[in-house]
Amino acid sequence: MKKIGLLLVPMALALSACQNGEKQAGQLFQRAEAAYAAGEYSLAKLQIDSIRTLYPKAFEVRKAGIKLMQQIDLAEQTKTLAYLDSMMTVKQAALDSIKGKFVLEKDTAYQEVGNYFYPTQVVEKNIGRSFLRAQVSELGEMSLTSIYCAGGSIHHTAVKVSVDDTFAETPTSIDSYETTDLGRPVEKADYKLGNDGGVIAFLVANRDKKNIRLEFIGDRNYKTVMHPNDVKAVAELIELARVLSAIEEIKKEQKEANLKIKFVKRKMEENPEE
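-> structure tokens emitted (274 positions)
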């Protein structure tokens, strides 16, 4: 009888501990539910994570916690999507208010993405002119193209802009090419924003300055002065680039949120398993 009694003591202690664990896990779950109802999703998740860590054998409470976690995930993504939708409305309105300033060039026969130009910089208005042209793709990617056709070939692959003793210079272009137009040599080199040596930022910062110097750098250099409209084109297009790139980022985040919502809903239709 003494042996049986000795065996029953640890069993009773284990049962008591298990019951206490279920009770304490249940209390954490109630806190998680209250936090969820109050919209305090991070706090609710913390309580559920504590159940998993502290009471791994509280199976029923843990299963309830999984369901609640799925509801929290769905609520969070739904809230995120609503915010993104409101931001898209704001950015689209901003785009609609400024895109009329620019010309969109896009040949749908071979282009999936067109480019915006400032009206004074469209090709037909600048034949035979050496200058720095700015463009922004419909995806918000901004770049500059240096166009040289002042006579002869200099094989330029970079440009430098300067005001007094300050300047910015592009790195060597990874996309430069040469052609002819009615027998006249034409050289072009492209520089994307972020790999332009700060030229775009320099022109924006000095947009009100006169006589900004432009230097084509090649086998020999060619110097000229930037036309005010060319500087204005850069300053105006950077704003368009910011709006368009923001719209693309919102689209990306909307897609991610929708995919997460779809995933969570699918999991909610299944039986939760550890």
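Residues 39 and 55 are 25 Å apart (CA to CA).
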